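> run fold Gfo/Idh/MocA family oxidoreductase
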Amino acid sequence: MSAETIRYGLIGAGMMGREHIRNLSVIPGSRIVAIADPNAESRRTAAELLHEKPMLFDEADALLDSDFCDALIIASPNDTHAGLLDRIFSMQNPVPVLVEKPICTEPSDLERLRRGAAEYPKPIWVGMEYRYMPPVATLIKEVHEGRVGRPAMIAMREHRHPFMQKVDNWNRFSKRTGGTLVEKCCHFFDLMRFIARSEAVRVYASGAADFNHLDERYDGRQPDILDNAFVIVDFANGMRAHLDLCMFADGSWWQEAFAVTGNKAKIECLVPASRGYEEKVPAEVLFSPRNERKTLERRLVEVDEEVLAAGAHHGSTYYEHLGFRRAILGQGPVEVSVEDGLKAVAIGMAAELSVREKRAVEVDGLQFG
Ligand SMILES: NC(=O)c1ccc[n+]([C@@H]2O[C@H](COP(=O)([O-])OP(=O)(O)OC[C@H]3O[C@@H](n4cnc5c(N)ncnc54)[C@H](O)[C@@H]3O)[C@@H](O)[C@H]2O)c1
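> ok
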């Protein structure tokens, strides 16, 4: 690898794989040299985004054996991540890896991946990119700088459109995704841990599949994924966090609304819907101290147009890649570790269990017990 150009191999070239391609194409010194995907249409569409044609493989093993790449990006379906990592752990020439969330889908993966990653000599970065959304990054930074005083409560709301159609409909069944509270909500559980700087102890959740995908059938089976939930997480340091997820709120103006409140103030951020509205509005960060005279500080958070256009995650994939690039080049730390990825998934698994069994679930027992 030259310091200038990192040669990436992409495993899984669907919607998110293409978001990685578009973001790397605006980061100088990045080249996707190989793509592995069993789906010919995904390979073709992804390759068309690249000026220099990559090597194309119809399975990941062939790419991993090829030795063409300085770094790997895993953006295949959730239930393939753990197996691919197992395979990568035994590579002759290990390279840095960015693995999309969730890092795994089964409780039995947790401890094995943790041990495998501990032995792996190169950086592994987990795609918890919500940390890098500019308005969210502002909120986190200011909480950690003490602007709200001692933070006690974290409130997270995501109100959005239903899960989109995926290649082979892999995202319609909990068996393949880990369930909604693992699949997408591991992002929020990661944010909660990151903001709280503490570990989850206990999860109480209630959720259901009320409206979405009920009339769909795949091999005669109806999808089983939740489309709404409330989740409460207790943290070891006494903080409490709450997630309000609704996936039949297609018309929401704000898709994500996060608030952290402490003894001195509340800070919140509002992130516009990622799809649907013609009008593009900037995200906002609001700061409201506890004082007699109400003094709201309201900031708009602008993100570079090119960066926004490169993905559907409000610029976060771009900033995530800048960090991963630094880690590859040995110029920066792995900011989202395998441990972070596993812990976020474990909270999601605890939440799924809590919904199914209608009880509070201790996270530790599930995690590595
Ligand atoms: N970070 C985020 O915010 C974010 C957003 C969306 C998706 N994701 C994650 O990205 C991953 C891919 O999601 P997507 O939306 O692109 O799905 P997708 O269905 O659009 O694409 C998945 C691709 O992987 C391919 N694939 C299947 N099995 C494979 C294998 N064994 N090896 C290589 N390729 C394989 C499929 O053919 C398909 O082209 C998922 O893990 C998802 O959770 C992350």
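The chain has 13 helices and 15 strands.
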